[in-house]
Structure prediction request, 379 residues.
Amino acid sequence: MRTRSTLRSVLVAGWMVALVVPQLRADSVTVRVADLTKIKGQRTNTLVGMGLVTGLAGTGDGDDYLPTMRALMSALGRLANPITTVDELGGSDNVAIVMLEATIPEFGAREGDRISVKVTTIGAAKSLQNGRLLAAPLLYHDRAINDVFAYAAGPVRVLDVQGPTSGIIDRGATVERDVLLHFLARASDLPFSSSWIQPDRRYITLVTDDPHASWAIAHEIATAINTELSETADLPQVAQAMDPKNIVVVVPDHQDVAAWIREVEQTVVLVPEGQARVIVDRTSGTIVVSGDARISPVIVSQRGLTVTIAPPPPDGQPVQPVAGQSRFVAIDPGSAGDVHVADLLEALKPLNVPVNDRIEILTKVHQLGKLHAELIFEE
Prediction:
């Protein structure tokens, strides 16, 4: 790898920090395909329901919350103890109506598996402490599917960090029917068209995670798989990038599916450096820099603090400190001198520059067109 160091100077309010910055940074890393992607079909599924928590010490919804009273009447009716009027339930402040939510793991679940259930009040209950959920059905979150996938019941463990009106039932739901995920697809099942895709073959689709989704990485993944596995598959091509997020991979007929997917996921990919980004969270004061985020020569003055980024002089002599600037001035970067954003932040750190001022400096530099990266604000 070629490296060439160039002197860069960051001048801050009379301070000069000389930075030796490699012209060519390490711009790629090697990772497994499994670290960048998941297989289409590999996803969690949410089950939802509604139930009653009993055994509350006077902290339930109370008689005035009619949805709870109606649900309690219905529950008693199913247990051969019918109630004709709400008045018969006087003093029922030890019951609360709750919403239930459970997550099927990303690789599915089989009948008899136990999964945890989140419990949240929806009425006037003040606390679920010491409460117990009566058996309640859990449905798939898609209302078009009405089958009961699990039943939930058991003692509620209140989550202190979320307050007394929410909790969890550890392994409180029993799966009643298999939830199996489908990873293989025929050509007719794929949303892509390509002369490479054959109708009589089986395929899986690798989906890159959002931070890595790009044409460059999709191409690298497909290239790596083709290089490593074409001979094993006895095919000239086994993978093709269809868009920045999806790579279709053929499953050879003579290969065991599980073993083949393992080989695909273990394939090593040389990942090029991602898009240059500077992500700013104003609430927490966090600044995250990724990629080759650079700043061209510029002078910025902020609250009496002057930052000068300048190209090195032809004679190689250190740049003299510059202070007292009171306006924003962009310097022509004719000699292509620049610094990495991380170098600027490091130069500001020993001067105890407040985070808000650092953010404002980056914002102004971006407005001048001197920040060569995407600037993203997260509130």
Remarks:
- The longest strand covers residues 45-54.
- The chain is about 15% helix and 35% strand.
- Residues 1-26, 318-336 have pLDDT under 50 and may be disordered.
- The two ends are 39 Å apart (CA to CA).
